[in-house]
What we know:
Blueprint: E1 2-6, E2 9-11, E3 17-24, E4 33-38, E5 45-50, E6 57-59, E7 67-72, E8 77-82, E9 91-99, E10 102-105, E11 109-113
Parallel strand pairs: 2-11
Antiparallel strand pairs: 1-3, 3-8, 4-5, 4-9, 5-6, 7-8, 9-10, 9-11
Amino acid sequence: VQLVESGGGLVQPGGSLRLSCAASGFTFNSSDMGWYRQAPGKERELVASITNTGRSTGYVGSVKGRFTISRDNAKNTMYLQMNNLQPGDTAVYYCNTRLARLTYWGQGTQVTVSS
C-alpha cells in the first residue's frame, strides 16, 4: 500500500490549494479514504472523509464550506480542494485509508498559510 500526497505549499490568507493523494497497492475503488492534518503541538485530526464511491463525504466543522474532498477512481487519486485558507489551517496534511483493520498513511504534505 502506498499513499503519496502532493500539492502543499505556502499561501497567503484567503488563498487556495489543491492537495492530491495518489494511491497504489490496493483496490482503491473499494476503500473509503480520508484527509487528516497535524499542526505543531497538536494532535492529528480528521479533516474530511469520502466513501469508496464518492457519494458520501464528511467534514470537520472548521473547514465546512471551504474545503471539498473528492476522488477519481479511474486515476486512483483523492483530492482536497482548500479555499479561503486561514493561518489556522497551517499543518501537515496526510491521506489515510483503513484496510483489514490496518491504518495506512502517506508521508504528508506541508500547508503553510501566512502573509
